[in-house]
Amino acid sequence: QGGFFVPGAGQAPMSQAQVPSNAPGHAAPGYLAAPPMSMAPQPGYPAQQVDGLTQQLSQMGLGQGQQEYQNAVLSGRPPIAALDEAPPATRLPAGTVCVPSPHALCPPHVKRSTLNAIPRTDKLLKKTKLPFGLLITPFKEPEAGEAPVPVAPDIVRCRRCRTYINPCAQFVDGGRRWRCNMCNLHNDVPMSFDFDLVSREPKNRWERPDLSCSVVDYIAPVEYMARPPMPPVYVFIIDVSYASVQIGAPGVIAQTILSSLDRIPNVDGRTKIAFIAVDAALHFFQVRPGSAEPQQLVVSDFEDVFLPSPTDLLLNLSECREGIESLLSRFEGMFQTNHSVGNALCPAIQAARKMLGNLGGKIIALQASPPTVGEGKVELRPEGKDLGTPRESDLLRPQNSWYKTLAADCTRAQVAFDVVSIGQQPMEMATVACLARYTGGSVFHYPSFMAARKPEVDRFMYELSNHLAANIGLEAVLRLRASKGLRMAAYYGNFFLRSLDLLSLPSVTPNHCYAVDVEVEETLTAPVVYFQAALLHTTSYGERRIRVATLAVPTTENIHTVFHHADQVAIASLLSKKAVDRALAAKLEDAREALQHKTLEIIGAFKTECTQSSSGATTQLQLPRSLQLLPQLVLACLKHTSLRSGNNIPVAARMAAMNLVLTLPPELGVQPYIAARLYALHELPEQAGYSDAQTGMTVLPPRLGLSAEVLAPHGIYLLHSGHDSFLWFGRNARPDLCHALLNAQDVSTIPNGVISFPDLSGGADTPAQGFELNFRVGRIMRHLSELCYGLWKPVTFVAKEDGEPVIRLMLQQRLVEDMDTSAPSYQQFLSQLRDKINRGSF
Amino acid sequence: MLTDLECDYINPIDLANGLNTYVMPEMAAQLVLSVAFLLMGEWTSMILNLPLAAWNINKVLGNRQFYDATEVFRTLSKHKKENFVKVAFYLLSFFYYLYSMIITLVNESTDDVRAGSVH
Fold it and tell me: What are the TM regions of this chain, as residue ranges (chain B) (predicted)?
């Protein structure tokens, strides 16, 4: 390791000495520890002209002096296992938190910053070229083992900036006053902190949940309500036109709703529900409370949409339960022979709004054909020739602004929309989905739905049922506050922006994430900055509450700290949301270009600022260990259905993918949705598939890199991307494994296409004889589904190496590290970046 | 109204509804004025108004003339700048028209005086 130390080319000799092994199946350590501290000009460091040997010796012994910041060299395969690691720790100075409690720091799945060490000046932030933003999932449900969100007894807020008291507030003046951590004002501590007024007993103030937990609920008093809390209201607009009846949608929808009636939140018996069936006319259903006979009322006059009956259309779920059940069980039969072609969605929406009146609520539109009647009727835009050309971006934009203005209007009435598109027919989702995007709703897409296809029906029923059972928040607003000097610039997600820091959400879904771009306006002087998100909402059981989440992030003036504490998953999530937003506002090509340029800038900035070869050419690119997967994730975004170039992605599929990217939280959106999980099933380690002794959770096998190189011809693999899952069988897959997995003789007898993964152990807790593999893989798949918070029930595609090319193509599109028609392979991408950086053209 | 939106006095939907009622009348009036100058032969005034007329026509063709409540925060600074420029232009052209009108009136009255005094 001796020899000259040549500035600029210094990396080459050392890196060649330690080439990482490219063994497939290994979480390949594709990085190596470069010199512990980069050669930034700092006092006490020898200048670069000093004798090389002394320098290298001094580097070796330097590990303890500076932090152990390791740089990763980008070469070989990306270390995919690093995706499962926790985000970089935030090093908060001692004493930031007033009560040391495990809940005092905001959990990353509720609120996450892309940079866990924030640069103090805007100049420094611009130098790093890193995107600075927050990813907030304000209404996240606590997971199975976690404690529920604590409720604080009363509301204490700062006088000046209206921040809620949080674990990072400091008590001064002997505990009589508290200092707001956002604006530094000293506020008085109310008596109720130390003395319980009701029971006349002294209280321990440190037991208050809002001082020890960063995520806390307050019960909102009357000042926070514009009107009494509303009950959950669901209006189903179901398409029963000929197109929908052909695929059997009305029957399955009615079946799903019938089986979810008990799961719909209805704690205090005030929940209301209504049904409107839509074809070329509107069908309303009237149920008198207590009667079991629903009455159908048909309205065909759309000039002036009116409700056929003033009462009993919006039904109370508890009171009219019998009638509703009878209606739903007869629903399929009523429309089975319906030949009406045409879809009066727009009048239906107007009627639904009349029905809801001032109450507000959620309108769920289940559509299988495009709206053809009414003001908002859409013309089907032919897509064939335009895919893959710059004109494709026009197809992604809404055709008319009727839906957008309607959505904006509905947010004032606290009406939210969910749009579910079922079936193959083009429905102009780009236009109709605006309803959901601007009212905080969700968009679902089931293109291959058919009542005869059991896996599809299962998936539809599972996902819709979970969605209806979700503990939603109603008539909500979300306000984000940050410390002085920080400004929220732009927001991404499904919401309506009521004011510069206020998001109006007529309905909040637990799994929706909102991303914010943050700018550093003034120099930050404090060592720690805070972000507080307050969600004022009505719960599904009629209580007005405020959910407050506070995040504390340290600041730094050192550019190396900023780089080494960046959160790559959060950055990838924010970049993908920004790219999708740009694609919808401008062009797809612009979005892809911007993503690549950003990655180039980040790598270039790191090279210039933090490595020895700051202005010379390098043979290997370096990134901090915290960002080592960034090129891989960006490449995955570029190859994902939402942004992928090419002419074989239908507009509806692209819109659905874009909607998901915009709303998924980073721990779901980045992986597995964009960067799937790949496991080898033919060589599962012993413990995989069984419960771990300590945690009780299913042990997962090691992940593989997403490349066709790892797919051995004798192997069986599982690729899980959240939304879909694939079972890949190599052409020489062992027959005994095929038997153990799917009870098939050998590879050729396994059916191509979509299957329902069979449970060959009959639901027992131990595997049946000879079917252990099936049992273990079933458990792994269930665990992977649980990791996605039950959002999806993926259908299982069987892809064989020598089987149907369509499914093989679908799987290969998810093998991100390989080259395909839309984007280069990982190695090529890296070399392109390296060339551009070496040329200095970025 | 735009600064009201920034200071959170009104919400975007009210802004859009309020301002959108004035967009088309303003453009129509501006177009009528330009055409009137064209027909009257007032070439300088017409040339002054031509850039604004072209800008308005461009917006109408691209369907961008109305305020969109969902996107208004994104384009807020652009709209403000545009409105400032328009106000400045209208003010300057107002004074120009006023000046031309006074000149014309003065010339007319001196003509009348001259014509009247001859008789």
Answer: 31-55, 87-106
Q: Is the ipTM of this complex over 0.95?
A: no
CA distance A728 to A750: 11
Q: What is the DSSP letter of A489?
A: E
In angstroms, the CA A647 to CA A367 distance is 26
Residue-wise pLDDT for A11-37, tens only, equals 333 333 333 333 333 333 333 333 333
Contact A771, A761 (CB under 8 A): yes
| Spatial contact of B43 and B50, defined as CB atoms under 8 Å apart | no
Look at residues A777, A757, A756 and name the one whose alpha carbon lies nearest to residue A767: A777
Other Cβ atoms less than 10 A from the Cβ of A504: the count is 23
Chain A CB within 8 Å of residue B70 CB: yes
Give the tens place of pLDDT for each residue, A235-258. 999 999 999 999 999 999 999 999
User: What sign does the dihedral B35-B37-B43-B49 (CA atoms) show?
Assistant: negative
Beta-carbon separation of B13 and A497 below 8 A:
no
Q: State the sign of the Cα–Cα–Cα–Cα dihedral A201, A207, A211, A213.
A: negative
Global pTM reads 0.86
For an interface test with B, give the residue of A394, A405, A496, A578 to mutate (most B CBs within 10 A).
A405
SS3 for A528? strand
Which residue, among B11, B71, B78, would best test binding to A if mutated, counting the most A CBs under 10 Å from its CB? B11
Task: Please name the member of A401, A490, A500 whose beta carbon is closest to the beta carbon of B68.
Answer: A401
Q: Name the token pair of A530.
A: 């805070």
DSSP A564-598: HTB-HHHHHHHHHHHHHHHHHHS-HHHHHHHHHHH
HSE-CB at A707 with a 13 A cutoff on CA atoms is: 23
The CA distance from A572 to A570, in Å, is 5
Report which residue type is found at A755: I
Tell me how far apart the alpha carbons of residues A147 and A665 are, in angstroms, rounded to a whole number.
21
A223: which 2 tokens?
């000042």
Asked if A214 and A106 count as a contact pair (C-beta separation under 8 A), the reply is: yes
What does the alpha-carbon distance between residue A16 and residue A3 come to, in Å, rounded to a whole number? 14
How far apart CA A202 and CA A216 sit, in angstroms, is: 23
Residue A287: what residue type? V
Host H or E run for residue A70: none
Tokens of A798: 């069987």
Residue type for A620, please? Answer: Q
Q: Do β-strands A724-729 and A716-720 pair in parallel, antiparallel, or remain unpaired?
A: antiparallel
Beta bridge partners of A233: A272
**Do the chains contact at B68 and A404, CB–CB below 8 Å?**
yes
Q: Considering only CA atoms, which of A734, A732, A647, A724 is closest in space to residue A682?
A: A734
Is it the case that residue A647 has pLDDT exceeding 50?
A: yes
